[in-house]
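Lab notebook, bench 4. Still working through the backlog of constructs that have no structural model yet. Next entry is a single chain of 147 residues. Request: give me the structure tokens for it.
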Amino acid sequence: MDTDDVAGPDGPLWAELLDAKRYEPRTLSARDLPTDKGVYIWVREGLPVYAGRAKGANGLRDRLSAHLAKGPDLSRSTFRSWVAVTILGVSRPVTRQRPSVMTDLQIQRVNDWVAGCRLGWITRPTSPQVIQFEHDLLDAWKPPLNR
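Model written out:
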């Protein structure tokens, strides 16, 4: 994905999220992830490529664990699914099939692309705050993999 011609994020919500500490995906395990509710970003080549929210019982840990998975099932991660669509040219329904119809080579390409990203997040105390933050964030600017 070429991010050079994509307009960048702007505004205080994006500034707050972009100021969050970023991690290399390969250095994270589920126990490293907070169980708090929050909003997260995936950044590649300095530009956010995807933003999402985690508002369930185990918050960021559950949601980000799905995105950090390396197995063939892309259906549980919207982020990994859109990565496959973007870099492999497959359709979204193909990436969402269970059991997966993706080849080992295709999955490896998705995993390699994700490994080239950085992940950051911020937490919020309540689900409504998470939902509102993500809504306002994506209203201000939508990353290329948020479709």
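Notes after review: The two ends are 15 Å apart (CA to CA). Residues 1-6 have pLDDT under 50 and may be disordered. Flag for follow-up if needed.
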